[in-house]
Amino acid sequence: MAFSSTAAAASTAFVSGHRRRGGACHLLSSSFLIAFPRAAAERRCGAAAAAPRRVGAVTVRAQAAAAGAGKKSVLIVNTNGGGHAVIGFYLAKDLLAAGHAVTVLTVGDEGSDKMKKPPFSRFSELTSAGATTVWGDPADVGAAVGGGASFDVVLDNNGKDLDAVKYYYSPPPPLASLRAGVRVLTKVFDVPVVDWAKAAGVAQFLFVSSAGIYTPSEEPPHVEGDAVKESAGHVGVEKYIAEQFGSWASFRPQYMIGSGNNKDCEEWFFDRIVRGRPVPIPGSGMQVTNISHVRDLASMLALAVESPGAAAGRIFNCVSDRAVTFNGLVKMCAAAAGAQPEILHYDPAAVGVDAKKAFPFRNMHFYAEPRAAKEVLGWRSSTNLPEDLKERFAEYASSGRGQKEMSFDLDDKIIAAA
């Protein structure tokens, strides 16, 4: 399919000037300079890079004259696993309710076993509300969504490192290597999400990152601007997006609950409480963390779509505004189940178990606050953990999970040593 004139211009600029290097450094956006001053200060000219091999044909929608004006076409690139998939599901519902056009591109194949689990098994709720759902490879978004598709906003709820979002080109190996019989693997990604969106002229790019990139702090909670692990894949993606887009924002979630989530959180506690088993908690149980209902995370993202100017160039802790201790979470889960909990505290080192395998949360204070969202977007949290856990237990009970046979080998080892 031929390029439209606008798309051709965008693609030409992408191929000939994207992250141009050589005689001069590529330009950095003002939002990158603000969000990542250290990285900007360290940026240097690199060696000349080879041009990307191809850019998929897309038709680019003319952007509204006033930023944020009118209804928008939004593409959600959604992961097919882990706890983040439910964020895209809830966001799609919020945007559809607000009158926006939504396409959800889920990684993988529609017929895979993963799609039999929520939230994917509930995608009929999206299509019945007017959404388009497609499956494919995020390394070739254009092919997955169709050559005639056009979007004002792209949300990447899948990329965890630059391999997932950035175009790479590895030149052929030196002739000497080939003559020597050396096998050299080259890696080419044919227009991953960020580069595809840039070439297509997408006006706003949003990214679901992770609060796990913060370095441990002696002064919790984590707030936007705190130090992060520079080696973390999400950090590299955030910096790259800031280089490419003027209107961008990154959202850092923590733990979440909500109907449709397919990663154990509260279920881990319910599994033990309904069977009358002790709930083993590492340490004192006074460690503080943050657990948010996914509707809060989706509402924050939706506000960024509605107010791109306010969100531009910002990083948001995508969390609720209340913390909870491990002991408190056990008690809330027990109250939701109508039971009395038995909490067993233990020292992982003394027992000889890895707390990462024996407990679903980080064995430390891990708590972020949503200050930027409140100040910049006017966002307000609706998470009410005691009530939300009652809703979750009702769904847990109706699933029959409480009656299934389960093994608790690590728990038994902890109980025997306590």
UniProtKB/TrEMBL annotation:
Superkingdom to which the source organism belongs: Eukaryota
Biological-process GO terms, alphabetical: monosaccharide metabolic process
NAD-dependent epimerase/dehydratase domain: residues covered: 192-318
Gene Ontology MF, one: UDP-glucose 4-epimerase activity
Gene Ontology cellular component terms for the protein in this record: cytosol
InterPro entries: Epimerase_deHydtase, NAD(P)-bd_dom_sf
Name of the molecule in the record: NAD-dependent epimerase/dehydratase domain-containing protein
Organism of origin: Oryza nivara (Indian wild rice)
